[in-house]
Amino acid sequence: MIEVEHLSKTYGINTAIDDISFSVEKGEILGFLGPNGAGKTTTMRILSGYLPATTGTARVAGFDVHEASMDVRRSIGYLPETPPLYLDMTVEGFLYFVARIKGIPAGDRATQVNFAIERCNLQEKRKVIIRKLSKGFRQRVGIAQAIVHNPPAIVLDEPTVGLDPKQIIEVRNLIKTLAGDHTIILSTHILPEASMTCDRVAIINRGKMVATDTPDNLMAQLTEGSGYELEVEGNIEQLRPLLQEVPGVREVEVTKTPEPENLNPTPFLVRYPSRSRLRIVSSPGSEPGRAIATAIVSAGLGLYEMRRVRPTLEDVFLQLTTEELHFEPEDRLGDDGEAFQSTVKSQQSSDEKTLSETGGRGDGEAGETQ
Ligand SMILES: Nc1ncnc2c1ncn2[C@@H]1O[C@H](COP(=O)(O)OP(=O)(O)OP(=O)(O)O)[C@@H](O)[C@H]1O
């Protein structure tokens, strides 16, 4: 549905995007991630026909953005970071206005406006002046104006920025319901949002595409950050060499040692002063959890908590977009610009398997309400 090939854009001497290529299949939601100034908005504006590229091609629904820009505009709905709303119009009046601007024939406008109002759940607000709406409802009106002509593709630039947690969930759910019928590109800074909402993500840094894959695949291949956190009671120095011998264990770090009772100034604040906390880093692809638990129990120590730690999309993002990359050579971008084939399974908290006195944290939606 959307195909981008070797797209570049320069502003004077400043290269905003540099030879990027990607595609989005029909019905897919692609998350477009990148730090500030990475080139996301520039790419989205080119795709939406609002900005010419310097070199390269982009096609939406088969139409070239340069050669058939009017067809492209008919095929795409664009929600810029700041929704273009006329605050003194009613929701309905504004959508009729947009429908006319977008060239919808007069006889079809009522149907199309009703379609957008229903899809965005704005029925109760259709007669309300936009100025009086909350930011969340204004964002829905912004999405309604993007879909009023029922385009096959939708481009949303930071659609949840500035919304409160409840509004974020509502807009996110709305985006999910639009997928399937529509192909969606969604830029966001909220990485759990990308994990939860998007089928695939594309990560752009300094104008270059550094990764495109499903969030799960990207996370699954991250070499750093997999391991376990444990709470153990007993002689930790006796245990440490045993753990280091377990196949798949790369590093054992004691993060909290037992506190000598006479040195503990506030014993009532420390529930378990005799226990240690450990962080174990496992080798990529290994699964030493069972052997770790066996080693601890066989050594006669108490195992009170064992929690798997998995890299998150945030870890992937940081590794790909910070200066000091820590990848092994085979995990880096190839010199030929070949996409990064990388990184870690499942989002950290939702899949954490906790073996604990108090049970699992079960905070898989931790990012949801931030
Ligand atoms: N009109 C312009 N003139 C000159 N430089 C521009 C212009 N628009 C964007 N740039 C530059 O191009 C680069 C990419 O900007 P762009 O807005 O596409 O990034 P972004 O990823 O959307 O950033 P953000 O997340 O902050 O919105 C930046 O270095 C920016 O300063």
TrEMBL record:
CDD domains: ABC_DR_subfamily_A
Region (Disordered) residue spans: 328-370
InterPro entries named among the record's database cross-references: AAA+_ATPase, ABC_transporter-like_ATP-bd, P-loop_NTPase
Domain named ABC transporter: residues: 2-231
GO molecular function annotation: ATP binding; ATP hydrolysis activity
Keyword terms of this UniProt record: ATP-binding, Nucleotide-binding, Transport
Family that this chain belongs to: Belongs to the ABC transporter superfamily.
Protein name, entry field: ABC transporter ATP-binding protein
Source organism (scientific name): Lusitaniella coriacea LEGE 07157
